[in-house]
Amino acid sequence: MTNVGKNNELIVITEGAIITALALALSFVPHTTGVSAIEFVYGLIPMAIYALRRGLRAGLIAGLVWGIADMLLFGISKGSVLNPLQGFVEFPVAFCVVGLVGLGSKPVKDAINRGKNAMGLILFYSAIGFFAKYFFHFLAGGIYWGMYAPKNMNPWIYSLVINGGSFVANMIMLTVLVIVLNRVFKQLIIVKN
């Protein structure tokens, strides 16, 4: 590997570490809404931008690190880890798949470079990563958290309401930010040499 390649890899790793730290720091901002556990996960926004900027591999790795750190800092201490398998599914796996947003890295960059509006592509690929995250939470909710469902309510329906509601809430948050940040996408996503 040449020095340029090593320097570029170091820059990608450094950006990933900064984005992961930012996503963790955003976890300290209150983010539960309503009478249920529907959550705004503010860290999804910088992770989505990073995955679009650096691609699938970098996005998956940053998401994995974010999930492990979130589990160690918040999950275990708040009682959100019921057993090792559930903890693995809801933290490293669920946070890692947010990196699937990186599938859209090339199409979004191509659209931006051609001067086209990339908002639809950004929302589409972000929805893939966000949906994947909440799908794993949905599975864990139905399997492990079902005992906390209201009486006479199917645990799978309860998990769908909570995790589906969180997915929708985060997509609404992303849509608002995509509209607000539309003019700066080129600076956020396109890597300068």
UniProtKB/TrEMBL annotation:
Keywords: Membrane, Transmembrane, Transmembrane helix
One GO MF term attached to the UniProt entry: thiamine transmembrane transporter activity
Recorded GO CC terms: plasma membrane
InterPro entries, per database record: Thia_Transptr_ThiT (IPR012651)
Keyword Membrane listed: yes
Transmembrane portions of the chain: 12-29, 35-52, 59-76, 88-105, 117-136, 156-181
The name this protein goes by in its record: Proton-coupled thiamine transporter
